[in-house]
C-alpha cells in the first residue's frame, strides 16, 4: 500500500507532467481571422463593411451616368454592347449599399433565366443548387471589388456573403409569387426574357427596394419573334416611368479588352 508521503510525491509528478504537455490554444471570439475580421464580425448580418470595398471609379461617360443615376436613387436599365461593365458597375453599387448599415437594403437578388428552355426543374437540388453553374462570373466580379491578401481570404469573404444571404441567386422560374422587400434586384441578361417574364419580375418589387435591368438586346437567345419583341415593348413602358433611367452602351464603352472591342466592331461591319 502506497504511503501518504509517497502518494503526495506521485501527485506532484503527475501535475508536473500535465503542465509540460502541449495544450490546445483557446479560441478567442475576437481573434482576427482572414483580413482582420473577427469571428463575431463574420457572424453578423452584414459581416463585411464598406471599409474592405475598393473605391472603383467610372471609366467612360456612360459608366459615369450609371453611377450618377444610381446615386440619385433611380431604377435603372443598362443595355448595349458586351464588355462595357454594365453588370459589374450595377453589382458594385448594389453591394456598396447592402454592406452599408445605414441603408434599408438587406440583400442583392441576382435574377436571370438560367437555361434557354426557360425551365431548370429537371436539374437536381433547390434553386440555389441549380444556379451554381451560373454564379461563377458574378463571383469573379466580386473578387475585383475587394482588396484581399489571398485567394483563401476571398473565398472566406464570398462564402460568408452567401451564407448571410447578402447575395442570392434566383431564376425566373422561382421568383413568381414572392415579394422582394428591402432588396436590390439585378436582372442580368434581361434580353433573354420575354415580356411575361419581365412583367412578372418587376411586379415582385416590394417596399424599400430597387431594380436594375442589364443586358444586350442584340445577344438574345430567344427564338420566337414575339418573345424577342417583348423587350422593346417592356422598354417602351419603362421610358414613360420617371423613376427609371435608361442608359445605352456603345462601342466606345467597351473596357473588357482591345480584342473584344475589335471583334464587336468587325462583327457589326459584317452585319451580324
Explain what this protein looks like in three dimensions.
Helix content is 39%, strand content 14%. It is an alpha/beta fold and 272 residues long. The protein has one domain: Rossmann fold, CATH 3.40.50.300. The protein has a six-stranded parallel beta sheet with strand order 5-4-6-7-3-8. β6, α8 and β7 (210-215) form a beta-alpha-beta unit. The radius of gyration is 26 Å and the shape is globular.
Show the helix and strand layout.
Layout: H1 4-20, E1 32-33, E2 37-38, H2 39-43, H3 61-71, E3 75-80, H4 86-98, E4 107-112, H5 127-131, H6 136-143, H7 151-163, E5 167-171, E6 183-188, H8 195-202, E7 210-215, H9 225-239, E8 244-249, H10 258-269
Parallel strand pairs: 3-7, 3-8, 4-5, 4-6, 6-7
Antiparallel strand pairs: 1-2
Helix pairs in contact: 3-4, 8-9
Which key terms come to mind for this protein?
single chain; 272 residues; alpha/beta; Rossmann fold; 10 helices; 39% helix; globular
* Strand ordering within the main sheet: 5-4-6-7-3-8
Q: What is the SS-derived class?
A: alpha/beta
- What is the count of helical runs? 10
Annotated CATH architecture = 3-Layer(aba) Sandwich
State the helicity in percent bands: 25-40%
The domain count comes to 1
The average pLDDT value, as a whole number, equals: 79
What does this entry show, briefly?
This protein has 272 residues and is α/β, with parallel strands linked by helices. The protein has helices at residues 4-20, 39-43, 61-71, 86-98, 127-131, 136-143, 151-163, 195-202, 225-239, 258-269, and strands at 32-33, 37-38, 75-80, 107-112, 167-171, 183-188, 210-215, 244-249.
